[in-house]
Design goal:
By secondary structure, this protein is mainly β. It has strands at 10-14, 23-26, 31-32, 42-43, 51-55, 64-67, 72-73, 83-84, 92-95, 101-104. It has two domains: 10-43, no CATH class; 51-104, no CATH class.
Length: 106
């Protein structure tokens, strides 16, 4: 007996038997499966601070992370974009603890 194939984006939730067909379910949000007849869905990649999500994940493809370009940053994980660095005037400094805000030296 040929059982149903679970396509990319699905996982096997119940194997086929001599009397029943294989049961497939979609990968839940935040997970993916790239091969046919996967037994599990993997978690999407985590884009760490300093990177951003350049291509969002789907049920059949992992998320793609890219580094922030020169003069840009991301302070949190899984950011959808990078932020321009703050430019302070002479006599000021940037506090990375307070959201990249300029403060007077003193």
């Amino acid at each position: 007996m040929d059982w149903k194939s679970c396509v990319a984006g699905q996982k096997i939730s119940a194997n086929g038997t001599a009397t029943t067909d294989r049961v497939c379910v979609e990968c839940s949000t935040g997970k993916y499966a790239v091969s046919t007849n996967s037994f599990a869905c993997a978690d999407w990649k985590n884009c760490v601070a300093g990177k951003y999500i350049s291509t969002n994940g789907t049920s059949s493809a992992d998320r793609v992370c890219s580094s922030c370009g020169l003069g840009k940053y991301s302070a949190s994980s899984n950011a959808y974009s990078c932020t321009d660095w703050k430019s302070c005037v002479a006599g000021e400094y940037i506090s990375t603890n307070r959201g990249h805000i300029c403060f007077l030296r003193g």
